[in-house]
Amino acid sequence: MMDKCNSHQPYEHVPRVSQKPQTIIVVYDQPKVIVVRRYTRTIVTLTNPDEYQNQFDTVLLDTSALLDLARRLNIEENMITLPSIQ
C-alpha cells in the first residue's frame, strides 16, 4: 500500500488568469449654471484725445466693429451704452 503523503502527482500547469481591473464609470449630472452679466461704469480720467489715439491706435475698434464683436459674444445690445458725442 502506498502512503498517501508520499505519492506525488504532478500538478498540471495552469496559467494564472489575472483578473481584469474593475471599470468604474462615474456619471455626473450637468451643473446648473446661471450667468449674470453685470456691466458697470468705471471712472475714466480725462485725457487728451490725440495722445490717447496715438497711444492706443493699433488696438482701438470703430463703433461697428465693437458692436459686431459684442454681438458675437452674445452681449445684448440693450446692455451696450454708447457714449454720447459732445
Structure explained in plain terms:
The chain is mainly α and 86 residues long. The chain has a domain at 49-79. The protein is built from two helices and no strands. The protein has helices spanning 49-56, 63-72.
Any chance you could write out the topology, listing elements then pairs?
Blueprint: H1 49-56, H2 63-72
H-E string: HH
Termini Cα gap: 121 Å
Tally of strands: 0
Beta content: under 5%
How would you describe this structure in keywords?
86 residues, 2 helices, elongated
In short:
This protein is mainly alpha-helical and 86 residues long. It has two helices and no strands.
